[in-house]
Amino acid sequence: MRLRRCAHLLFEPREALQFDLDSLAAGGDGLRTQLSLLALAPHRQQEIAVSPQDVAILAAVPCTAWSEFDALAAVYGAAPLQDLLARGLLIADDAASVDHLRDERLRAANWRTLSAAQHYLGRWDGVRSGDELQRAGYVTLGELIDKLGEPPPAAQTCAAEDARLPLPPPRRSAFDELLQRRATCRNFDTDAALAQDELATMLHRVFGAQGTLTLEGGGATTVLKRNSPSGGGLHPTGAYLIVQRVAGLAPGLYHYRPVEHVLEPIRALTADDASDLALRGVAAQAYFAAAPVLIALAVRFPRSFWKYRNHAKAYRVAALDVGHLSQTLYLAATDLGLGAFVTAAVNEVEIEQALGLDPLVEGVLAVCGFGPRAQRRAADEFDPNGRIWHEDGSRIDR
Length: 398
Ligand SMILES: Cc1cc2nc3c(=O)[nH]c(=O)nc-3n(C[C@H](O)[C@H](O)[C@H](O)COP(=O)(O)O)c2cc1C
Prior knowledge:
Elements: E1 2-5, E2 10-19, H1 21-25, E3 31-41, E4 46-49, H2 52-60, E5 67-68, H3 69-76, H4 78-86, E6 90-92, H5 98-108, H6 113-120, H7 129-136, H8 141-148, H9 174-180, H10 196-206, E7 211-216, E8 220-225, E9 237-243, E10 252-257, E11 262-268, H11 271-281, H12 286-289, E12 293-300, H13 301-307, H14 314-335, E13 339-343, H15 348-355, E14 362-371
Antiparallel strand pairs: 1-5, 1-6, 2-3, 3-4, 7-8, 9-10, 9-12, 10-11, 12-14, 13-14
Helix pairs in contact: 3-4, 10-14
Bound molecules: flavin mononucleotide (FMN).
């Protein structure tokens, strides 16, 4: 058998403080420090406890060339090598093994190791995003300030007040009206369905190809023009829909094709299953799950990293692309008189599984949604200038 180290691997010495009754009884501070050494292995999508000896072996086994097991065992012993193989940190030359396949897929995608660790160890499964804050008593901004003190100020100060240069008043146009009516919607009308042409308009404005360019190389490479910028012009972000209430469209999962402007059905769902997936997808944020359509924004990493190979900025570019798409989505929704949201507090593992996405190829970075607003505001929204809601909580109709 031959072995090599997995392609992407980081180690973290972690220190956790734990309550310790014995220390308190002995007159100490009641805290015990727990030290651990962790391997952060993106292809395993988990942290794995290791020993200093494991680290020494992993540091000595190449990841780009195969080594004979027997030769390594003569130096380190067979048992520690078998242990590392079982934990997937050493990879055997066995094309059928799951760790071998995952490691190969990650190598092929040209990830930067730091970014791969950040992405694959930051994915959520079964998280309810409000619970932690609720337990800690940090729900409102007021409670946060009570517990944590004031946050840093809203803007930086770079010069003395008397050195500031006044600017002329900004110009105003209909665009400002649109911008000012943009606010994160946490009050969707749970009875209203979206019209199909509203959905089509949203998809085309946000994700649709406004133009294409075909470059002839060995094959034919299509470059999309969208209404948002994209690093390298690659537009690696796809739109996967959880449809709950759209007139004439069965609840279920769909993928939008930006050039043909069509939906690809992935799987039909009952209304209850769609609602359950929506709620789990947005980590139990019920006010977002109530939107008639939610869209998982999934980045196809190999398309981006085809150009940005092992690149320090590539993952940042992917996240920025998703942010641009979400702002275009907010504005497109506002223009249609709809509410919209974006959240990164998502259980991407559950969404990817439901959609049948291979997370080593495509990863959900955020979820957006849109739909008609409710008549009355029940959950908080940030509308300090009263553009959306009257003071009594009723909706301003335009
Ligand atoms: C990347 C990103 C993630 C967000 N995640 C959440 C979220 O998980 N839950 C939520 O209620 N709002 C979320 N928001 C919305 C913000 O809370 C909101 O933008 C902010 O309060 C300002 O309000 P406005 O968008 O109405 O101007 C998110 C916004 C962004 C840009």
